[in-house]
Amino acid sequence: MYGKKTVEERRATFPFSDAKKVLLVAFPDPNMNVVNRDSGETFKIDSLNLIRWNIKFIKSFELPQSEKKYFATEIVELNQNQIDSLSHILLNYKFKKNKISNFTLMPTSFYPKNAILFLNSNNKVFSYIELCSGGFQFTQLPEQTIPYFNIFGQMRESWKMIDLIRDFFKANGITQGFSEREKQ
Known about the structure:
With 184 residues, the protein is α+β, with helices and mostly antiparallel strands.
C-alpha cells in the first residue's frame, strides 16, 4: 500500500534532500569472519584479505557511526529518475490500515550484502540503508532517516518492500547479494 507523497515532497525529504549521489552497492558481508580450515585461524574481512582471496572490489566506503566498511563488488550510481523511483518505494510504502501488530519477527541473524548509500558533496556516506535479503530485513542509519523504518524492517509485511527493493536493484544492474524469498 502506498502513500501520496509527490516527487517534489520526496526530493525534499531527508536523506534524498541532502544527497549529491545515491548509490546501490553489493558487498561481502562486513560482519563475516572467515576461518582457515587448515590452521583454524580466523580472519575478519578487510581489504588485504579480499585481495588475498581474489575477491575483486571496486571501492571501499567508510560508514558513519560504524567501525565497518563496505568493500563494494558492484556499484550503480542512480540518475534522478531512478532516485525518484527508489524514493517512491521507500517513502510511500505504508502498512495497510490497522495491520500494525505488537508482534515483530525477531531475526536470528543479520548479514547485509546490499546497501543504498547516500553521499554528500565530499563523496562521503552520511546515511545508508542495509539490506539482508536472506533474512528479509533492513536497517538504516541514522535511525530517524525514514520514520519507523527500522521497526518496519522487523515486520512480516516488510517482505513485500524487500521484494520491491530487490527487484529495483536487479532492474538497475545489481546482480549480487539478493536471494529469492520462498513464497508462503
